[in-house]
Amino acid sequence: MTVKEIFETMDYGPAPESAAEALAWLVDQGDRFGHFIDGAFTTPGDGFDSKNPATGETLATLSQATQDDVDAAVAAARKAQPKWAKLGGHGRAKHLYAIARLLQKHSRLFAVLETLDNGKPIRESRDIDIPLVQRHFYHHAGMAQLMEEELQGREALGVCGQVIPWNFPLLMLAWKVAPALAMGNTVVLKPAEYTSLTALCFADLCRKAGLPKGVVNIVTGDGAVGEMITTHEDIDKVAFTGSTAVGRHIRRATAGQGKGLTLELGGKSPYIVFDDADIDSAIEGLVDAIWFNQGQVCCAGSRLLVQEGIAEQFHAKLKARMDKLRVGNPMDKCIDMGALADPVQLATVTKMVDACEGGEIYRADGGIPANGCFYPPTLISGLSPADPLMQEEIFGPVLVTSTFRTPAEVVDLANNTRYGLAATLWTENVNLALDIAPKLVAGVVWINGTNMFDAAAGFGGVRESGFGREGGWEGLGAYTKPARKTKALKKVEPFTGSEIAPAGVDRTGKLYIGGKQARPDSGYSRDVWSKAGKHLGEVPIANRKDIRNAVEAARGAKGWGKTTGHLRAQILYYIAENLSARADEFARRINDLTGGKEGAKEVEASVQRLFTYAAWADKYDGAAKGVPIRGVALSMKEPVGVIGALCADEAPLLGLVSAMAPAIAMGNRVVLTASEAFPLAALDFYQILETSDVPGGVVNIVTGSHEELADTLAKHMDVDALWSFSSSDVSALIERESAGNLKRTWVNNGQSRDWMGAEGQGKEFLEAATEVKTIWVPYGE
Ligand code: NAI
């Protein structure tokens, strides 16, 4: 094309990036890769080809890990871990800093390799993925440096098994590896089978950086290898990013193994445009929301919701913009959209869109290359909210759109999804933005911007988008554990007896549901005996129906989450005051139940605990994160929702208070299953609640078999989190059965806790009682 012709058409000319260095690196490695275990590459074994999805060319051959390979990688990580942790924060910080520097020095090699392997435009890998990778390592070098000072009482978990997807191959590695290493863990990581090359290049870089052997181990292969890692008995923590189906499978497969687990899964994130929005900016935002990385983004703004008054104009502008998007060779710096990651993904997206019934499909008319995994930018309108394309993650450059009339309606539409990863909203009205953001059920909300990420800002979802956060201080909880010794918890058996109850006025213990005493649906009760065999009373045996009623009551009390911390504090103090007034009676009751002499101490500890969480109710603050954009990322602590808890058997009152108080202080509603062996104190306690202004439904108390009730609570789709401090063996059951709605679980794995001491309260409880929502807000110059 001549200069004159260029001036006439004003078309972009091609600006190809050279692949020479990346290809040379592959040749240097012999084009065949083994695994990176204990600081060295293994001899390549049987494997599979890694292809460039834009051209179909084979880039290298990778090895499919065997069980022996995975065992060797885990053993290397295990051996290296104690020394790595003992290196101390500064020692590890220096290593992470060295990795960050090397990543910076070789940034173009990584960017090109990523684009060749994944198909994403070089503009994105060069300007977004790789800079964020570096930022993550720099940021976490700082976390390592500060760990001893800022995270006192926390220590490394051990060996982390990490399985990552193909949409941001090196970035997801960085999100997983940097915090793990910073906190003193070692890792065994499996990249996705389509995109392992940058992970292997990273392994090479770890070697160059002088990282101690065994600290980072990388094995390649498909989902079977992922399964070997996630279920490996010597892995302490699993971190997974990928599809919700596999995430759910991992939750079940690892149930009861005592592993930590974080899941970062799919989404169908709403992209809301109000009629007063800056429309051109919102359109550009949409390009970043759904056509960034070909829409293969877990938090892609894939569900457009436009306010009715501007819908026609907005869609017209959007289509015009779509027609201008350039789809083609990802190595061309002028390209907006590259290739999907693999023919399998192209087939999935094609099949989903082709199955569309009733919608109107608009495909950008800019054209796509005839060969390679390309799919045009696509817009689908006219679908009902329940249509599969409105509900399912398409994971391609396909946007679905609908309209709304009022802010209240858009909140309902936005939240009408089983996911809860991200949401975007555009408006020029700050009041509206700050009114809507808290109402969106999502882990991340972007205001007047989209798809912004930073190492300092937590990222992760709610509902079936998974649990756990990556990034920021909040991300470190998943890579550390409280530094304390644990003891096996023995099953606490109820006492038995035969002595007939003395004559007197019968006091019937009931369940406490929705602020009222309720008879059990089963119509059954059981006797409670003292150690000496004296009859103390009877307690109802709750069943599935009672749990359903309790959860419904808790759901109904959602206004509690909107009350102020100050009000919740007042109510917790009031509970403490009323309990204190009846301290002697409770102390006697506890002594009778347990056969011990610690009743008075337990009551005093319960009063103190109520004071502690009353104090925390308005002090467990969020933060404003200094992210490197013209804005701040607000880290807001929100209640989890409805929390079920199986209370400690050994401390009948304190165990119940220790679960209830942090949960309600943070704005949750609870369904508490009282100590199975010693339940009567809980039934006395609801009399305290009744006189302490606790709104009906905020606290519900049931008695019965922990095993049966754990099963019902775990399977209940309207329970958001389930905790177990029970001495019954229910941890595995809870983790397995909670996979349905991916509720957050916190189980004791048969380990005891000193309820009287410091480990019976504190930040661990507050963290479990809250979700971090990150709200990105424009701010400053
Ligand atoms: P996937 O969830 O199967 O793959 C992600 C990673 O998990 C890969 O490394 C894979 O090898 C591994 N894996 C697969 N099965 C496993 C198992 N049983 N145990 C342990 N690890 C296992 O995702 P896939 O099949 O590649 O893509 C399918 C769909 O998943 C996509 O169309 C998209 O909708 C969704 N997806 C979502 C992602 C996200 O970031 N939310 C990322 C990748 C895929």
From TrEMBL:
Keyword Oxidoreductase listed: yes
InterPro entries: Ald_DH/histidinol_DH, Ald_DH_C, Ald_DH_CS_GLU, Ald_DH_N, Aldehyde_DH, Aldehyde_DH_dom
Keywords in alphabetical order: Oxidoreductase
GO molecular function: aldehyde dehydrogenase (NAD+) activity
EC number(s) recorded for this UniProt protein: 1.2.1.3
Pfam families documented for this protein: Aldedh
Domain Aldehyde dehydrogenase: 48-481, 532-750
Presence of the UniProt keyword S-adenosyl-L-methionine in the record: no
Catalytic residue list: 264
Similarity-based family: Belongs to the aldehyde dehydrogenase family.
Name of the protein in question: Aldehyde dehydrogenase AldA
Organism taxonomic ancestry: Bacteria, Pseudomonadati, Pseudomonadota, Alphaproteobacteria, Rhodobacterales
Gene: aldA
